[in-house]
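Need a sequence for this fold. Nothing fancy.
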């Protein structure tokens, strides 16, 4: 295998199947997010309701994440992944049913809205398990020396699915309506459920069966908070999503500011992700493992600037351009963060570290949605986004000055160390 082979991870059959499963899941989840946001805003005409969606998913995802990490480290990963997908299919079917003409004509709007919130809450419970399960499973599919390549392809697949999912979600709402779009999403999840059985069962690497839940959770949190590089990388991404992100209120921009309609709503969502996937694919050919810390800081800083431009824009083309370049910077940040976590996390703690990652980053999407909804209601959507972008710039500058290990991080040394380990063994 060539040392700088950009397709190294893709030469492993089970990893390819994993990518297909992840694409189907994220494609469906991304479309579902777009459809739910559009449907809820259409029902309420209130940006705060979009924030409530974020809160419903944030609460269980955040508070159950440590426990989920403990479970993931103790259980076989393929079967746990399969169970999560099966339960996710129930959520998709429930949303499809809630938007049928029969339910809409016989149920009150408030009842339907609460039903959507309830299913989103259940989705938050699953999110607590999805993150650490996927993070742990990747490490069991590829050798350590190609973790950076696997992380890049996995992140690219995630972003690619977001691109097409968000774009298709917006267009399908306009073409076939909310209910039919949700029916397509349910079929996608069922396809993912069938594909996952092509991955074999994996060994459980955490053999410490006598460790209590409390001790297990403490060990995972202690590891993350004692490692300044991991803690700094997670904090940077969390801050960017929490304050700099504006995905939850794209419907407000599409409807009320840019007058772009559902198609424009899909384009705004896709613009952010399309920049990310292009950058991620480029990093398979041009690795970013040298001067990694500086590149991470610059990428998050650039993301904040782009979001300020988006918030100030009243032109569709400028808004799309700003979101595209914010996606470029976000793509660099995501690849770096995932590579850091994969290279620096011990095998027996991957579930717990993945859970902490979900708490920092995954849950910040939902909390960020709540923050965006509240800020948009108080300040108006444009000013809310500009203030969030400014807060991102300030915090990045503080972390860059205070966190020297992150600032001087160079992952190439870690990769070379893993290559020597495999040669010696």
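Here you go.
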């Amino acid at each position: 295998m060539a040392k700088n082979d950009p397709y190294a991870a893709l030469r492993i059959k089970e990893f390819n199947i994993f990518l297909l499963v992840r694409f189907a899941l994220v494609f469906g989840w991304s479309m579902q997010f777009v459809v739910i946001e559009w449907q809820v805003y259409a029902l309420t005409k209130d940006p705060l309701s979009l924030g409530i969606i974020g809160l419903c998913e944030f609460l269980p995802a955040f508070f159950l994440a440590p426990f989920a990490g403990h479970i993931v480290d103790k259980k076989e990963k393929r079967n746990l992944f399969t169970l999560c997908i099966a339960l996710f299919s129930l959520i998709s079917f429930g949303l499809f049913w809630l938007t049928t003409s029969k339910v809409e004509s016989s149920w009150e709007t408030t009842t339907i809205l609460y039903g959507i919130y309830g299913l989103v809450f259940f989705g938050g419970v699953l999110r607590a398990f999805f993150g650490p399960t996927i993070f742990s499973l990747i490490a069991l599919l590829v050798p350590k020396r190609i973790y950076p390549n696997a992380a890049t392809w996995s992140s690219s697949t995630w972003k690619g699915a977001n691109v097409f999912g968000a774009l298709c979600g917006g267009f399908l709402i306009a073409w076939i309506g909310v209910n039919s779009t949700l029916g397509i999403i349910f079929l996608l999840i069922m396809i993912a459920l069938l594909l996952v059985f092509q991955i074999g069962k994996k060994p459980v690497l955490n053999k410490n069966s006598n460790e209590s839940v409390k001790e297990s959770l403490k060990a995972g949190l202690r590891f993350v908070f004692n490692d300044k590089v991991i803690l700094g990388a997670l904090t940077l991404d969390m801050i960017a999503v929490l304050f700099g992100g504006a995905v939850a209120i794209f419907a407000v921009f599409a409807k009320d500011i840019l007058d772009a309609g559902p198609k424009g709503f899909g384009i705004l969502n896709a613009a952010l992700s399309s920049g990310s996937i292009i950058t991620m694919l480029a990093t398979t050919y041009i690795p970013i493992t040298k001067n990694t810390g500086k590149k991470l800081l610059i990428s998050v800083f650039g993301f904040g600037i782009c979001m300020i431009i988006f918030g100030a824009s009243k032109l569709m083309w400028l808004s799309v351009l700003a979101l595209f370049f914010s996606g470029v910077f976000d793509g660099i940040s995501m690849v770096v963060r995932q590579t850091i976590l994969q290279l620096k996390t011990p095998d027996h703690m991957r579930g717990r570290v993945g859970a902490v990652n979900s708490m920092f980053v995954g849950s910040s999407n939902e909390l960020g949605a709540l923050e965006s909804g509240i800020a948009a209601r108080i300040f108006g959507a444009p000013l809310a986004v500009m203030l969030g972008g400014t807060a991102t710039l300030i915090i990045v500058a503080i972390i860059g000055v205070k966190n020297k290990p992150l600032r001087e991080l160079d992952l190439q040394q870690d990769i070379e160390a893993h290559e020597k380990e495999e040669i010696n063994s």
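For context: The mean pLDDT is 85.
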